[in-house]
Design brief:
- This protein is mostly helical.
- Helix content is 65%, strand content 3%.
- Strands 1-2 form a two-stranded antiparallel ribbon.
- The radius of gyration is 20 Å and the shape is elongated.
Length: 206
């Protein structure tokens, strides 16, 4: 596993928190980088799962960023204590979502491609006045197959973005811009990750 930077001293941490509140992005990045060792420590709890450790750290980092963005000194605990809970919660949510993957279907979930190459969503089928029975059964089979493929083929940020983009596992669909803002990355980067993830799913379902 990669070597992470040493944690900040309480004084350095307080200094970064004050700067971050004033909009200093470098201070926020510093807090994130200096707490990556904590992410790895929490992620080790789940190292006996089928997930790659790097993917677990990637998911845990999302929890860390949420913790840094929402932490307040009046919580009565240090940032590390609060962040550890947020990191653990993020990992737990990921595994719970993965468990439900075979049971939950979103109306906005892509389930196939029509004759013109356009993406078909479950909602499109439900709104159809006279659905073709044979075609419906075929798409239902594709849906079930796809639900199983999502957590099998996608990892880390790809999985996170597809879940948010298409409203999987009970979440509301989000735009690329909303996802970019939430994850702290550019919209074009979200678009590239989404495209790559959909290609993987397309190959897997053929």
């Amino acid at each position: 596993m990669k070597t992470f930077l040493t944690p900040l001293t309480p004084e350095q941490e307080n200094d970064c928190l004050k700067k971050m509140k004033k909009g200093d992005l470098e201070a926020k990045n510093e807090l994130t980088l200096r707490n990556m060792r904590l992410v790895a420590h929490v992620a080790k709890k789940y190292q006996n799962s089928d997930e790659d450790m790097e993917d677990l750290i990637s998911i845990g980092t999302i929890g860390l960023i949420k913790a840094i963005s929402t932490y307040k000194e009046d919580y009565g605990s240090r940032l590390a204590t609060y962040a550890a809970r947020c990191i653990d919660n993020e990992l737990l949510m990921y595994f719970r979502a993965k468990k439900k993957a075979s049971r939950e279907v979103s109306l906005y979930e892509p389930i196939g491609i029509d004759k013109e190459g356009n993406q078909i969503h479950l909602l499109d089928i439900m709104e159809s006045e006279e659905p073709d029975v044979i075609e419906r059964l075929s798409l239902d089979a594709q849906t079930k197959k796809l639900i199983k493929l999502v957590p099998q083929l996608l990892r880390g940020r790809e999985l996170e973005i597809i879940i948010k983009r298409y409203g999987l596992f009970g979440q509301l669909p989000m735009t690329q811009r909303e996802i970019a803002s939430k994850l702290g990355i550019s919209r074009s980067y979200v678009s590239r990750i989404e495209k790559k993830a959909l290609e993987k799913l397309k190959k897997g379902i053929v």
